[in-house]
Design a protein that fits this description.
This protein has helices at 15-21, 28-35, 64-82, 86-92, 99-109, 121-136, 141-160, 170-181, 197-208, 221-231, 241-247, 264-273, 309-318, 320-370, 378-405, 418-426; strands at residues 4-9, 41-48, 52-59, 94-97, 190-193, 214-218, 234-237, 250-253, 279-283, 300-304. By secondary structure, the protein is α/β, with parallel strands linked by helices.
């Protein structure tokens, strides 16, 4: 399977590195288009969330050289895009290709690779990234087929297991962490800074935990007012942020700012105005909203997205059995994608083999009927043609079956597979399956050739 992924996530890179490589949403379409300009890359999709940055690419060919060139191109493009050292990617990144890349994508979509296993946001985020790549013109038949199958697998995980039976999200884990500091969270004043997607998720988590007094602020007043109205809360102007911080007990920040909105210098006078009451800050934005310098201030407790991992692991323990069921579904999905890909790869070989044999038989029959077998009647000629066709089908059957059942299982470092052998042994002029020729997964390829048409009659 021609797929390569380069990425980093919460497991491999600290939040500081992830935020350095995080892609602003407005930069993603241009990056998608830039990747497919690379000579060895045919299709591409970039995914950037608070916990991961990943580039998916389909190499032009399924061979070691093309896959290696694709890896190098992805390293170079991402490092150049963010103006960062490629060595940082080498230290904190990961690269998967072929089946492993497909498996990784399906696990990502199924939230099995998430900080909070079972959360629903990642599937929506990958869908959005895929739609962006489509609009950018960087999605072709191969990526379309693989990503759509990954979406179906993720849907099966959510419907056929209870992995998401408890409503989980980064926002809900942040609320859970806040409850450890303030057990009576429903009596605290909570400030949510940011009313985008993550802000909405966090707000809903707060509502489920019975928090009644929540203030929402956002650079866009309309968004803050809409979110507050949905949950019966209060929206306040972003310009009042300092005053809001004086009154709040818990602050959950999740804006889309490209640099910190709070640091020690800004917060120090606010701490004095609060008379040093404890202030609990949860920063779930990437890039981060709150500079780590605030931790130096007295009675200020800062937690970023990486600090949520311990809480998320406890959630995972409760759903470990369901996670195993989900992994089984993932493997079944990967097998389906692989089988479909293998079938599409071997189709042109099967067709070329059948066409080559039919052409040889037709040519020999025509010559025979024109010379040595001129005396045969039309009925006898049909009988000879049918007999030869039956013999040909029987001779080809073992080869066709072997090619279908032992087709190359994706790139494997140059293994000499039966498909390659058939091309060489029979002198077949064929490459890989045309990407536009989609083959239904349950269809046997190809069926036995129909009986040959009667040869051209020759007058006695």
């Amino acid at each position: 399977m021609r797929l390569v992924v380069l990425g980093m996530n919460h497991k491999t890179a600290p939040v500081a590195t992830r935020e350095a490589f995080a892609l602003p949403s407005e930069a993603v379409p241009g990056l998608d288009r830039r990747i497919v300009l690379e000579p060895d890359i045919a299709e591409a999709m970039a995914v950037s969330t608070c916990n991961r940055v990943e580039l998916y690419a389909v190499p032009e060919r399924d061979d070691e050289a093309s896959i290696a060139a694709t890896r190098d191109a992805l390293f170079r493009v991402l490092a150049d895009e963010r103006g960062l050292d490629r060595n940082e990617l080498l230290r904190h990144g990961y690269v998967h290709s072929s089946v492993e890349a497909v498996r990784h994508l399906v696990r990502v979509c199924s939230s099995l690779d998430s900080l909070v296993v079972g959360e629903a946001q990642i599937l929506a985020q990958v869908r959005e990234a895929f739609a962006t790549a489509r609009e950018a013109g960087s999605v072709g038949p191969m990526l379309e087929q693989i990503v759509q199958a990954a979406f179906r697998g993720a849907k099966a995980v959510r419907t056929d297991t209870s992995i998401a039976s408890e409503t989980v999200s980064i926002g809900s884990v942040a609320v859970e962490l806040a409850k450890r500091i303030f057990p009576a969270l429903d009596k605290c004043q909570v400030l949510v800074v940011g009313a985008g997607k993550m802000g909405r998720v966090t707000a809903r988590a707060l509502a489920r935990h019975g928090v009644a007094e929540v203030i929402v602020t956002n650079r866009s007043p309309a968004r803050a007012e809409k979110l507050a109205a949905e949950l019966g809360w209060i929206a306040r102007p972003y310009a009042d942020l300092d005053d809001l911080l004086v009154k709040a007990d818990v602050v959950i920040s999740c804006t889309g700012a490209d640099r910190p909105i709070l640091d020690a210098r800004r917060l120090r006078p606010i701490v004095k105005r609060r008379k040093y009451r404890p202030l609990f800050l949860v920063d779930i934005a990437v890039p981060r909203d709150i500079d780590t310098s605030v931790s130096e201030l007295e009675q200020v407790y800062l937690y970023d997205i990486d600090d949520l991992e311990s809480v998320s692991k406890e959630h995972l323990k409760n759903r470990q059995g369901e996670a195993q069921k989900a992994e089984t579904i993932v493997e079944a999905t990967v097998a389906q994608i692989r089988d479909r890909h293998v079938t599409s790869e071997v189709v042109p070989v099967l067709k070329a083999l059948r066409d080559r044999c039919d052409k040889v038989v037709r040519g020999e029959l025509d010559r025979a009927f024109q010379k040595r077998l001129q005396h045969l009647s039309a009925h006898d000629r049909d009988a000879v043609s049918s007999a030869l066709q039956a013999a040909l089908n029987k001779l080809l059957h073992p080869a066709m079956t072997a090619l279908r059942e032992h087709a190359p299982q994706g790139h494997d470092g140059g293994r000499f597979d039966l498909s390659t052998a058939a091309r060489l042994l029979y002198g077949l002029d064929v490459t890989t399956a045309p990407e536009s020729a989609s083959v239904p997964p349950d269809e046997d390829i190809p069926p036995a050739a129909p009986a040959m048409p009667p040869p051209t009659k020759v007058s006695a």
